[in-house]
Write a structure and sequence with these properties.
Elements (H helix, E strand, L loop, with lengths): L2 E2 L8 E5 L5 E4 L15 E6 L7
Antiparallel strand pairs: 1-4, 2-3, 2-4
Bound molecules: zinc ion.
Length: about 55
C-alpha cells in the first residue's frame, strides 16, 4: 500500500519512504508530511506497530 504526503493518515503508524526507506511516524488523522529525510512525497509501506519485528 502506498501513501502520499498531504493525505490524512487513517491509522497511527510508521510510513516508509519509497526513496530513502527511512520511517516517518504519523498519528491517525494527521496529514502525512513529506519525508523529513529526502523531501520525497511517496511512502510505499505503512507499519502499524512501532517495533520492528523483522
Ligand atoms: Zn525519504
Amino acid at each position: 500500500m502506498s501513501a502520499h504526503s498531504g493525505e490524512s493518515a487513517r491509522e497511527t503508524g510508521d510510513f516508509r519512504c519509497s526513496r530513502c526507506h527511512q520511517q516517518t511516524h504519523v498519528t491517525r488523522g494527521d496529514k502525512i508530511p513529506k519525508c523529513p529525510h529526502c523531501s520525497n512525497d511517496e511512502f510505499d509501506t505503512r507499519y502499524h506497530e512501532p517495533e520492528n519485528r523483522s
